[in-house]
């Protein structure tokens, strides 16, 4: 049974996806205080939020059963992403479902600001007929400067063109060619500041964008500029905006978002030049249905072990590429788990070699599974593909991916090699068409072993009778051998035997095998 906590109001259309699923229990607690959430969170496998709930490191570190945090919306600045990644919790969002609503709200705010609609409306509601006080300005032929031309910025640009505005935009990913195609002007940040009559910000809130519009930016703007922020409080420095409005530099500002939400008493809201809404950009029936449905599908997919569509703290893999590489995930993890059992030392460096068909596929997700397998022995079950590479880096383990042409006759071959203080160990595996995964090499020995179940890896001397003695000893302990593979370096030299047996051996049983004089070492590996 998966326990899902819905901590913010989320549309029932989306929640239906979860209600209809098997083995899911849903708890709706949309008014939990941070301390209450901290206490309750260990009960849950999944947490669903919008922007209101702050998912802090404290909460995440107490969330011992949490697998996934779903954000029904775009911005994830209310979630401590580093803490989630470190703790192996995947974060997913719903980036597309509210784009239209946010763009429409931005346009509404810009128009409302230009025509002083909220102020005139309030006056009239107070029975004041003040036509001359509320003279506005047209947006036609004015220049709109857009900072952040992503999903919403782009939609705003098209709508502004419909209003016959000129559009200039700055975004690190915008090229002159793309701007030309859209019929807008490409600008640097400073160009947008100095040329625009209206400036609308549409970036995420992150370290790089926090307070990107401050006193210095306002100084570079035209006198009488209008400012719109329907992205995130904190992108514009609020004290600097206040000063710029009071000084007359800024004619007016339309803000949907504040640095401190929910609403705290704020001096900006006292200014008649400011029109404001309480973070309503995504608050339409359509947007809420869209984001809720998207995020609930992703949460369910993840809980069922399937690929998610909108991961935030993992690179997303298009589904055609995913279906090509997914069969290797299990092989990679098993190779990692197998190899790490062969050495008692902690790896210092990991080299993963991909060859044959594997040399031209997207290998990063396969690598994550190999690293996860390698780390499980020492770091336990909390290691997963979300945090494997973070945990490796934290343990100063360097990981190198290599594509090679050495296939050793296999159509696909993957080798995981670890360097430890006592030397280099490696294991190779392949996926055989229709037959599944095989371990085909252990160090310099060739083998053919299915990486499943209980394996015993025995390094021994190549002497007559060793195999018989081993078989008798195991028989005495009532251990049945399912399969056996042997290989040797040279006649009478060192050899390897890999047994697949029907039960995991007791330590005492392994010790008994080690007593044989031909045996160098015995390792049990449970895959
Ligand atoms: N008010 C609301 O209710 C509401 C609704 C939806 C989204 N949002 C917010 O709107 C913002 C934009 O959302 P989106 O879906 O368009 O995101 P997006 O990721 O599609 O677009 C963001 C764009 O900002 C650009 N960017 C990043 N750093 C930049 C920088 N330093 N300077 C200029 N551009 C930069 C990125 O390259 C990207 O193109 C986010 O902050 C999101 O949280 C608010
Ligand atoms: O980032 C977003 O998606 C918007 O800010 C919407 O936030 P909300 O879900 O709290 O309305």
UniProtKB/TrEMBL annotation:
Molecular-function GO terms, alphabetical: NAD binding; phosphoglycerate dehydrogenase activity
Keywords assigned by UniProt, alphabetized: Amino-acid biosynthesis, NAD, Oxidoreductase, Serine biosynthesis
BP term (GO), one: L-serine biosynthetic process
Catalytic activity: (2R)-3-phosphoglycerate + NAD(+) = 3-phosphooxypyruvate + NADH + H(+); (R)-2-hydroxyglutarate + NAD(+) = 2-oxoglutarate + NADH + H(+)
Domain ACT: 455-527
Pathway entry: Amino-acid biosynthesis; L-serine biosynthesis; L-serine from 3-phospho-D-glycerate: step 1/3
KW Cytoplasm (keyword) present: no
InterPro entries: ACT-like_dom_sf, ACT_dom, ASB_dom_sf, D-2-hydroxyacid_DH, D-isomer_2_OHA_DH_cat_dom, D-isomer_DH_CS1, D-isomer_DH_NAD-bd, NAD(P)-bd_dom_sf
EC number: 1.1.1.95
Pfam families from the UniProt entry: 2-Hacid_dh, 2-Hacid_dh_C, ACT, PGDH_inter
Family according to the record: Belongs to the D-isomer specific 2-hydroxyacid dehydrogenase family.
Record's function text: Catalyzes the reversible oxidation of 3-phospho-D-glycerate to 3-phosphonooxypyruvate, the first step of the phosphorylated L-serine biosynthesis pathway. Also catalyzes the reversible oxidation of 2-hydroxyglutarate to 2-oxoglutarate.
Official protein name in the record: D-3-phosphoglycerate dehydrogenase
Species for this entry: Lentibacillus kapialis
């Amino acid at each position: 049974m998966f326990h899902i906590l819905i901590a913010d109001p989320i549309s029932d259309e989306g929640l239906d996806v979860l209600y209809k699923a098997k083995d899911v229990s849903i708890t709706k607690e949309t008014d939990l205080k941070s301390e209450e959430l901290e206490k309750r969170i260990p009960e849950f496998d999944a947490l669903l939020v919008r922007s209101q709930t702050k998912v802090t490191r404290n909460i995440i570190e107490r969330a011992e059963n949490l697998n996934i945090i779903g954000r029904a919306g775009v911005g994830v600045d209310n979630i401590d992403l580093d803490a989630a990644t470190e703790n192996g919790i995947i974060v997913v969002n719903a980036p597309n479902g509210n784009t239209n609503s946010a763009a429409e709200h931005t346009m509404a705010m810009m128009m409302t600001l230009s025509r002083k609609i909220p102020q005139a409306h309030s006056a009239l509601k107070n029975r004041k007929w003040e036509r001359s006080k509320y003279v506005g300005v047209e947006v036609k032929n004015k220049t709109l400067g857009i900072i952040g031309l992503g999903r919403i910025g782009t939609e705003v640009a098209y709508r502004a063109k419909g209003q016959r505005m000129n559009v200039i935009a700055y975004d690190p990913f915008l090229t002159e060619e793309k701007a030309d195609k859209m019929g807008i002007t490409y600008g640097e940040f400073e160009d947008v500041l100095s040329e625009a009559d209206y400036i609308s910000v549409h970036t995420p809130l992150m370290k790089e964008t926090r307070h990107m519009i401050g006193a210095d930016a306002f100084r570079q703007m035209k006198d009488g500029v209008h400012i719109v922020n329907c992205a995130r409080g904190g992108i514009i420095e609020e004290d600097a905006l206040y000063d710029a409005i009071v000084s007359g530099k800024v004619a007016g500002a339309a803000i949907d978002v504040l640095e401190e939400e929910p609403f705290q008493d704020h001096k900006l809201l006292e200014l008649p030049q400011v029109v404001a809404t309480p973070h309503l950009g995504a608050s339409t029936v359509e947007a809420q249905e869209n984001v809720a449905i998207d995020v609930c599908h992703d949460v369910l997919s993840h809980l069922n072990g399937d690929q998610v569509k909108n991961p935030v703290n993992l690179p997303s893999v298009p589904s055609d590429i995913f279906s090509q590489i997914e069969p290797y995930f299990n092989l990679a993890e098993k190779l990692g788990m197998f190899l790490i059992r062969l050495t008692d030392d902690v790896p210092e460096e990991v080299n993963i070699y991909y060859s044959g068909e594997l040399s031209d596929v997207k290998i990063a997700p396969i690598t994550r599974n190999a690293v996860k397998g390698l780390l499980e022995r020492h770091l336990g079950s909390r290691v997963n593909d979300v945090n494997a590479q973070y945990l490796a880096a934290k343990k100063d383990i360097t990981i190198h991916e290599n594509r090679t042409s050495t296939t050793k006759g296999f159509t696909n071959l993957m080798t995981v090699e670890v360097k430890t203080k006592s030397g280099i160990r490696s294991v190779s595996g392949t996926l055989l068409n229709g037959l599944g995964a095989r371990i085909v090499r252990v160090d310099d020995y060739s083998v053919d072993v299915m990486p499943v179940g209980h394996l015993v890896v025995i390094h021994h001397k190549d002497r007559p009778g060793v195999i018989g003695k081993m078989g008798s000893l195991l028989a005495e302990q009532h251990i049945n051998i399912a399969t056996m593979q042997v290989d040797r370096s040279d006649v009478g030299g060192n050899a390897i035997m890999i047994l697949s047996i029907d039960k995991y051996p007791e330590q005492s049983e392994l010790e008994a095998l080690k007593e044989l004089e031909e045996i160098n070492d015995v390792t049990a590996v449970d895959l």
